[in-house]
Amino acid sequence: MRLYIAVIISIAFFGMLASFADEKTEPAPPKVGDTAPDWTLQDPEEKEHNLKKLRGKVVFLILGNRKIRKEDNKWAEVFQKDYRENKQVTAYIVADMRSVPGFIPKRFIRGQLKRNPPPVKFLLDWKGEVHKQYQTEKEKPTLYLISQKGKIVFHRKANFKPETYAELKKKIDKLLAAPDAK
Questions:
Q1: What's the CA gap between 30 and 24, in Å, rounded?
Q2: What is the 3-class SS of the chain, one letter each residue?
Q3: pLDDT per residue over 8-25, tens digit each?
Q4: What are the pLDDT digits (tens) for 90-105?
Q5: What does the domain layout of the chain look like in residue ranges?
Q6: Are the beta carbons of 72 and 64 closer than 8 angstroms?
Q7: What residues contact 137, with CB distance under 8 A and at least 6 apart?
Q8: Which of 31, 51, 104, 174 is most buried, judging by how many CB atoms fall within 10 Å of its CB?
């Protein structure tokens, strides 16, 4: 009888450990070839932007936080230089706002962004949900290029480098040349 009880307790204990391990595992980040996870976020003017509504356009996402904002801006500036006039491609800096101290009002942050606008549209991820979904990095921007059909065609975690941008630009230009390809 004691052996039977010990076996039951062991099974229950190891089953519990297995369920805790499952809870801590995160799904793999989206990769090239996957459909990009959808999101809806607001810009500083509180206008909503939704990834699914952008289908038909090439979308460049620069996911970062306040500590790497300069790197995010480098990516955005060079993108704007090449694609500012092209209505078939758009870029967003998606800011992880979880690191902003709670005592700073959201309206203050929005006001600062209106007075000093970033080079591309800036979206506020207050709860970090998009950053969790895309499994971003805190130390450098996480970049995703999404095709007109919503598929990820480029992904890097990288500070700005001209050779990486050249690779990204080649992908953008290919998508713009053949919009129905991907």
A1: 18
A2: CHHHHHHHHHHHHHHHHHHHHHHHCCCCCCCCCCECCCCEEECCCCCEEECHHHCCCEEEEEEEEHHHHHHHHHHHHHHHHHHCCCCCEEEEEEEEHHHCCCCCCHHHHHHHHHHCCCCCEEEEECCCHHHHHHCCCCCCCEEEEECCCCEEEEEEECCCCHHHHHHHHHHHHHHHHCCCCC
A3: 444 444 454 444 444 455
A4: 999 999 999 888 898 9
A5: 31-177
A6: yes
A7: 157
A8: 51
- Who's near 4: CB < 8 A, 6+ residues apart? none
Whole-model pTM: value is: 0.83
Which residue's structure tokens are 């500590």? 67
Look-up: residue for tokens 């993108």? 79
Domain 31-177 sits in CATH 3.40.30.10: yes
